[in-house]
């Protein structure tokens, strides 16, 4: 039996339709890995026939192909760095030193979901942002967020089923409609989440994307008061809707545009924490919280450098959502322990491999691309 040290990821989707997104999500599940914490995950991971992290990552590889050295999900990405300028508003909510007023070092990675590092960019693909905050006392917080407002399923088992259901038929290159229909009938949570995902406008690039943490955590302050929270990262860069019918000669146009924008001037987002009410669901990332929940702006995320993934320290980071400082703790959302365990499995596999082919995301930063 494999230890439970790994995590899962989800994928992006095709051309903006709900169903397409859901399928893409499934296709994206390859992944990351977390570190050594062992989670006695209560959803069957410890039984012999259970869905283990290793089995999950095997499925990701079966869906997206085996691409040695790459993340089994969100395989395409670039490393970024900058800082978080905390405004001190978080201090009353969490005792994490990251929220004291002042600057905190940031390392990050923008990515597209999916396990194929050579896929062409698509505006319909789910976008990812992993961030690592490191305060001067060495305290570290990692978070991996995506561009969807809710997750399409509520459990790792359901995500695994979705991956299998959305697997392309070799004959048509598309998921088998009957398999997706069967999945939807069995998963009402997915049927409810899909319209929310489908009506969320898609921006035309990474720079003006809002990223969602989705899972619920608790912030605990110095007095020991804990409040359930979710967080989002909202761009200062103005929204422009993506043109989903546009064709792109540059297969890496999204990463290329991001690099070009950072080279022109630093990009800025706000870290917004959303405070839950006592009756809000804390263990189900497929359910949106009421939009009237109080939001607190904790400060500005400034990204001022972008690097080829393999040159960036972010490449070696496992953006495990359970790497948390004192003052932030996880909820009992089953996705969290599963992600941690599956990311760890993905990380362990990729760390022991040599990359054979370049990722599509490496192209925009190549000198010959004219971007530097
Ligand atoms: C059961 C659900 C999930 C599974 C199985 C899964 C699986 C994975 C895997 C295997 C990776 C690659 C890990 C690595 O090699 O470092 C990954 C990366 C990622 N996942 Fe997930 N994931 C899940 C849910 C989520 C959720 C809910 C979010 C967002 C809230 C998310 C956001 C990301 C992001 C942004 C990355 C890329 C991080 C980076 O740049 O290293 N995933 N996921």
Automatic annotation (TrEMBL):
A Gene Ontology biological process in which this protein takes part is: hydrogen peroxide catabolic process
**Domain of life of the native organism:** Bacteria
Sorted keywords for this record are: Heme, Iron, Membrane, Metal-binding, Oxidoreductase, Peroxidase, Transmembrane, Transmembrane helix
Using the UniProt record, name the top-level EC class of this enzyme in a single word. Answer: oxidoreductase
- Active-site residue list: 74
GO CC terms: cytoplasm
Offer an example of a GO molecular function term for this protein: metal ion binding
Query: Any stretches that span the bilayer, and where are they?
Result: 25-46
Sum up the protein's function in the record's words. Has an organic peroxide-dependent peroxidase activity.
Mind telling me what this protein is named? Catalase-related peroxidase
């Amino acid at each position: 039996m494999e230890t439970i040290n790994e995590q899962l990821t989800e994928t992006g989707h095709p051309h903006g339709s709900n169903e397409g997104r859901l399928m893409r999500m499934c296709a994206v599940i390859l992944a990351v890995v977390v570190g050594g914490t062992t989670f006695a995950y209560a959803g069957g991971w410890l039984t012999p026939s259970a869905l283990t992290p290793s089995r999950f990552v095997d499925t990701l590889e079966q869906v997206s192909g085996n691409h040695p050295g790459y993340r089994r999900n969100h395989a395409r990405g670039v490393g970024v760095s900058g800082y978080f300028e905390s405004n001190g508003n978080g201090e009353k909510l969490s005792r994490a030193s990251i929220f004291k007023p002042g600057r905190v070092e940031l390392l990050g990675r923008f990515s597209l979901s999916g396990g194929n590092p050579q896929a062409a960019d698509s505006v319909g693909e789910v976008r990812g942002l992993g961030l690592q905050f490191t305060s001067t006392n060495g305290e570290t917080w990692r978070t991996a967020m995506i561009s969807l407002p809710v997750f399409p399923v509520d459990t790792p088992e359901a995500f695994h089923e979705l991956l299998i259901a959305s697997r392309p038929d070799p004959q048509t290159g598309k998921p088998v409609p009957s398999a997706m229909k069967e999945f939807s009938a069995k998963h009402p949570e997915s049927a409810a989440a899909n319209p929310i995902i489908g009506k969320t406008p898609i921006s035309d690039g990474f720079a003006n994307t809002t990223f969602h943490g989705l899972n619920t955590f608790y912030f605990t302050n110095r007095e020991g008061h804990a409040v359930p929270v979710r967080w989002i990262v909202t761009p200062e860069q103005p929204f422009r809707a993506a043109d989903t019918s546009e064709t792109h000669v540059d297969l890496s146009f999204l990463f290329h545009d991001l690099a070009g924008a950072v080279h022109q001037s630093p990009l800025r987002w706000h870290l917004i924490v959303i405070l839950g009410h006592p009756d809000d669901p804390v263990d189900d990332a497929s359910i949106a919280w009421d939009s009237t929940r109080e939001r607190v702006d904790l400060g500005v995320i400034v990204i001022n450098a972008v690097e080829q993934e393999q040159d960036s320290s972010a490449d070696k980071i496992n953006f495990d959502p359970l790497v948390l400082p004192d003052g932030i703790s996880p909820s009992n959302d089953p996705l969290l322990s599963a992600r941690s365990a599956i990311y760890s499995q993905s990380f362990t596999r990729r760390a022991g491999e040599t990359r054979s082919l370049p990722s599509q995301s490496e192209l925009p930063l190549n000198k010959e691309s004219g971007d530097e």
